[in-house]
Amino acid sequence: MNQKKQKQNIQPRTGETHGLFGVKYLKNHNMRDPLWTADDLITQYEKLSGIYRKANKVAGLRREQDNIQINQQKESLKRLVKEKGEISRILYKGDMQRMKNIFRDQPRYQRMYCHLLAHEVLEKIQEQTFHKQTTLDALIGERNKLLREYEQKLKEAADKQEINRYYDIKEFQQERDTKRLYAELKNSETRCRAIQNLNSSYKKIIDKMLHDSLYYQPVIDALNADWNEQTMLVKQTHKIGYPAIQDVEKMEKKLKSMNRVAKQEFNNRLKTIEENRRILKEHPKIVKQLVRSDSDFSFSGTRYDRDTRSMTSLKVKMDKIEPTIDMLKSATLCEKVEEIYPRFVKQSEGNNQKKLLLKRQESIRDSIKEKSEVFKYFLERILDDRPEIFNEEKMNEIKKLNDCVKGENRKLDALRKDMAEKSKIIVQIRLALQHILDVLRHVGKEDAFKSLEFTTSDLNLPLLDFNSDLPPMPLVVETDLSKLLSSVKSRIQLLMQHHQKSKNKNESNDSTVKFQKAMIEDSVREYKPRVQNYD
After folding, report:
1. What are the residue ranges spanned by the domains of the chain?
2. pLDDT in tens, 229-270
3. pLDDT of residue 462
4. Of the ranges 192-196, 300-304, 446-450, the best mean pLDDT one
5. Residues 6+ apart with CB under 8 A from 19
6. Which residues, other chains included, contact 155 with Cβ-Cβ below 8 Å and sequence gap of 6+?
């Protein structure tokens, strides 16, 4: 059925309208299709062009995909090459930082293996771990053996317990003892673990304290200085405050006595006033005749006046000074009187600086004026001079000036050469003198290592004696030749004095030795004839 359908669908086409072959080819091969048209040819070419475009897009996408894959493979290969290069560099050259990072939790191994190569590190680790592995295998075998024996013993004990329970339900004393001992063992294990933890924490604390011990000496020095300062401050305050406290106590006593006297006088006055008022009410005419001018009943304005002679003089002075103070306030722009003097000092300093600046500017301006006048004078002369009038005298003056300038330049060159030559010699002399000073740096100086003396026993702590680690202070490099020569001269004189003293001591010792030798020889000479006579 399918073959029949396919045969029915096939139709012959004319040669003029065939899309795949030309007309001549179709004519020669007798291929005709009356149903084929020019539009069909156009649509066929458009479809073919669309197919080609799609094929080009697919090829481009495939190329992009291939390029992406190639780039990924290239990056992975680069990464591999880099990693392999790093591994080869570590293997054949070594990497100290990498080794330190590998053993960062184990500082002992870090110090041992940081300078070695990878295969050397492996060999060292294998050498160290081989013995440990063998001992571990032996211990594991021993443990397994003991476990087997323990299981066997447990089975035997269980059998015995069953037998004992079958015959006698009572618990043996040995069982109670074993339970008690097991409990004690557990408690001791917990105690051991706690002690180990405490020991590890104490070790860490000791390490930290040893690390911090470097900073104890400056801290103690600072505490010592603070202690001395505080003691001096306390002594000073005691020295200043004790007499003031005594004066205050005296004044308090005096004030109490004065208050007591004033209260008594006040009470007496009140009593007299009350009696006088009572008398005044009873006999007013008699009292007015008896009242004196200085009594309590008379009143005068000058009696309660507080102004004394000194107060009035001060007021007069203040009236004279107040306008000047107001002027100073307005000049210094200060509201408070206390700020006038510091502001005045600051403004006076600023005014002095401004005056100096003005003087400099005036001097610069005067010099510029002089130069401008000189330039004007020369310019007028140049404008007045003409080539006809330019005579031989001016030419001679110019030659003389040029000769003077050349002579000055020659002198400057000679000075520069002389300084260049002398500077090398001066530097050599200075270095030689500094070397001599460095050699004689301990001459005429006391011992640099002095034990510290603490003011109190609280600062004299144990395990903090760093006197042996105190280095001597470095010498200050001197550049002045005169000072260097004087210091070298003084130190050489001291050295020669010490040498002369030691020489005199040696000469005196030599003379004593010679005298002793002469005495011994004389005694030997006297002894020999005696021995001969005896023989």
Report:
1. 171-291, 310-390
2. 878 877 777 777 777 778 778 888 888 888 888 888 888 888
3. 52
4. 192-196
5. 36, 40, 41, 44, 45
6. none
DSSP characters over 486-522:
HHHHHHHHHHHHHHHHHHHHHHHHHHHHHHHHHHHHH
344 CB contacts (<8 Å, ≥6 apart)? 328, 332
Provide the 3-class DSSP secondary structure of residue 296: coil
Residue where the block lists tokens 């024996």: 149
Instruction: Name residues whose C-beta falls within 8 Å of residue 16's C-beta, 6 or more positions apart in sequence.
Output: 23, 26
473-495: burial string, b at 16+ Cβ within 10 Å, e else: eeeeeeeeeeebeebbeebeeee
> How many whole angstroms separate alpha carbon 513 and alpha carbon 521?
12
Query: Do 164 and 172 contact (CB within 8 A), yes or no?
Result: yes
- And the tokens for 281? 């009410």
Distance (Å, rounded) from C-alpha 520 to C-alpha 512?
Answer: 12
- d(C-alpha 308, C-alpha 486), whole Å: 71
Neighbours of 437 (CB within 10 A): 17
Task: Tell me the pLDDT of the chain averaged across its residues.
Answer: 73
Residue type, 476: V
Taking residue 113's Cβ as centre, other Cβ atoms within 10 Å add up to 22
DSSP 171: P
pLDDT average, residue stretch 409-436: 80
Residue type, 384: D
Neighbours of 70 (CB within 10 A): 10
| Counts for the chain of helices (H) and strands (E), in that order | 13, 0
Of 517 and 105, more confident = 105
Encode pLDDT of 192-227 as tens digits: 888 888 888 888 888 887 877 777 777 787 778 878
- Would you say 27 and 15 are in contact if contact means Cβ atoms under 8 Å apart? yes
End-to-end CA distance of the chain: 171
Structure tokens at 165: 């329970």
Q: Which residues contact 227 (CB under 8 A, 6 or more apart)?
A: 455, 456, 459
Name which of 249, 230, 139, 279 is nearest 459 in CA terms: 230
Find, among 317, 331, 265, the residue nearest to 296 by Cα: 265
pTM above 0.70, yes or no: no
